[in-house]
Amino acid sequence: MTAFAPWFPALLMFVLFALRTPITWAMAIPALVFFVINRNDVPLSTFAQEMTEGTQSISLLALPFFVLAGAIMNAAGITRRLLNVAEILVGHMTGALAQMCIVLATLLGGLTASSNADAAIMSKTIGLQMTKRNYSPAFAAVITSCSSIITALIPPSIGLIIYGYLTETSVGRLFAGGIVPGLLLAAGLMLTTHVVARRRGYQPQRDSKASGAEVGQAVLDGLWALSIPFVILFGTRYGIFTTTESGAVVVVYVLLIGMVVYRAFGIRELPAIIQEAVLDTSAVMIMICAASAFGFYLAWEQVPQKMASGLAGYDWSPLGLLLTINVLLIIIGTAIEGSSALIVLTPMLMPVVQKAGIDPVHFGIVMVTNLTIAGVTPPVGGMMYTASRVLRVSMRDYSIEVFPYLAMMCGLLALLSAFPSITVWLPNVLYN
User: Fold this and answer.
1) Using one digit for the tens of pLDDT, what is the confidence trace for 222-256?
2) C-alpha 423: how far from its chain's center?
3) Where are the domains of the chain?
4) What is the mean pLDDT of the chain?
5) Are 339 and 405 in contact (CB under 8 A)?
6) Cβ of 24: how many Cβ atoms within 10 Å?
């Protein structure tokens, strides 16, 4: 047992993941087991200290602010206004409802900050409408889950905030770096949807393209919501506020929109909105606490150093290393939920990535994109489960429908890996 003990917590974590144990417990239990096994060398009280230490980061303050901003925006009826923008823009296209879902996801990227939240919103709105209009339920589930990946890239993104915290990378640069890949992903999803929808005979929502006046009116109606990402980037670029402070600024901004501009809710509704945000934030923060304790185990057993040493034994080019890591992450992503894989693997991979001279912003976008794709990949994808549960779709039917979308997204991932300028161009323009 002594020789096996260093690996037992890691093995236990994978077993718990395979049993679909909630992410927090799947990391906290193995971490506690490590401290019990090594209680003679490490005081058991260190477990609680490491759990607490996981929250001691200024950059993490942005997370609850952005989650609260998303809850306020939902209460203000922003989704309805953005859906109208999406219909005006693409309602004339083949498979219009599916195309609207993708456009709406792009517009919601700056509001929900969470891919799972995005998948839930769109499954309950556009997804159900698609099934009522004779779209295949499995196709609707695939569209609503795959389009929610865009939220992981367009700011603000919880995944990018967590990555920035783990690697001490500028969250502002990460936000800027995700915009172009996010728009490319949206374009790829729309092209794939056009091909599939044309074969299936899915009809447009409108007989003709919207007029310029209709587009202008729809954009004007949703202008307050569309302005949020620009407020974040403008403020951080010119030093008006930090990325962390931008979360608080956005909360005040959307409060004014919801209560003064749209008059969608009043003071009495605020406690329920805050409660929703607190519950969502707590779920993420407790996961980070558990990951911090598990990270102590990894550091104690020198797992990152051993992994780095193993990879460093080869003469990697930056592209070769990224493609190898992509394959590794795709394999791991089919068994482990994306957020937990991000938290566990980032500290292990960063030393190797830094040695190869890969820009941390570039790697962050590639890694978050990769692991979010895992969220729509059977058998454990979180967004897959969300959409499939709402639309009552079996994993078998979902797996058949998702294949062309996975092929397109893997192609985009290879493109992002091969051409760093796609990712780092905008951050370099804005922050240099």
Assistant:
1) 777 777 777 776 776 677 877 677 778 888 888 88
2) 16
3) 58-431
4) 80
5) no
6) 18
Residue given tokens 């996010």 in the structure block: 182
Over the stretch 349-384, which tens digit does the pLDDT of each residue have?
888 888 888 999 999 999 989 888 887 887 666 678
Cα-based torsion angle of the residue sequence 201, 204, 208, 212 in order, rounded to the nearest 10 degrees? -140
* pLDDT bucket at 404, cuts 50 / 70 / 90: very high
Burial of 300 (0-12, 13-18, 19+ CB in 10 A): middle
* DSSP type of residue 150: G
The single-letter code of the amino acid at 241 is F
Contacts with 336 (C-beta within 8 Å, 6 or more apart), sequence order: 14, 17, 344, 374, 380
CA atoms within 13 A on the CB side of 160: 35
Nearest-angstrom CA–CA distance, 385 and 380: 8
- DSSP string over 320-382: HHHHHHHHHHHHHHTTS-HHHHHHHHHHHHHHHHHHTT--HHHHHHHHHHHHHHGGGSTTT-H
Confidence check: pLDDT of 412 > 90? yes
